[in-house]
Amino acid sequence: MGPRTDTILLRLLNDRTLFSEDDMNYFFKRALDDKNMKIIRLLYLNGFDVHDARLDNGKSAVHYLAKVDEPGDRYKVNNEVTLKLIKFFLSNAYKIHCDVLGYTYLHAACMVGDVTTVRWFAIRGVNVNLKVYKHSPLHIAAQYRNEEIVKALLKSGANPNLRDYQRSTALHALTWVRLCRCVRRDSFCSRRKPVDKIVEALVEQGADIEARNNHGDTPLQLAVSRFDVELTRSLLGHGASTKNLTRTECSAGSSSRAN
């Protein structure tokens, strides 16, 4: 679409005799599904509230794009485009925006590695130990292995031993399925980000390396069960005990949920 087409679309969108609020919400959701940045920008320029619009189950746009509540989903997605879309919403926001499920723009910033937004929220007094969502911002930063974000949160007072809804800590979160920059969202991505400095930062701030979640698993048990050699090596290097490992955990997968 060129400038002339954009102008025509803007005029059409401005005509409320043609399109109701429900219509606008439909266009917005369709644009998100299609990862259509141009339409999303046009809606934003037209005054549509892209931040407070609510989608499936009351999710915000960034929550909807993150797909964080669908761990079993294996559909193909262009993750680079998804991350760019989320960053677009963050760059045009001036408050934390919490949706019905408790997912905030701070959670989204931790996911995409937007350290500028994380620091902006922290400087303005946002509680980095938010408990409104099932995972804390630190859990999400660790899950996506965003080292700079983890360190920024810890510097701002994030609790490395804060438990989520399954009593997992940020060290457990390092084992979770994450949206990567590959073609597919997959549990066993060969392009995993380095993890040792994240483990080091968490442990230095007092993270309990032997913490157990609701399933009785330690971070090491989960790392081994998911064949994550680098994380296993890092946890062992920082003193994790092997005494609770079983033959089953070393040869098969843990029964614990990913997140």
TrEMBL record:
SMART domains: ANK. Keywords: ANK repeat, Repeat. PROSITE patterns: ANK_REP_REGION, ANK_REPEAT. It holds the Pfam family Ank. Gene3D superfamilies: Ankyrin repeat-containing domain (1.25.40.20). The keyword Zinc does not apply. This is Uncharacterized protein. ANK repeats lie at residues 133-165, 215-247. Signal peptide: none annotated. It comes from the Eukaryota. InterPro entries: Ankyrin_rpt (IPR002110), Ankyrin_rpt-contain_sf (IPR036770).
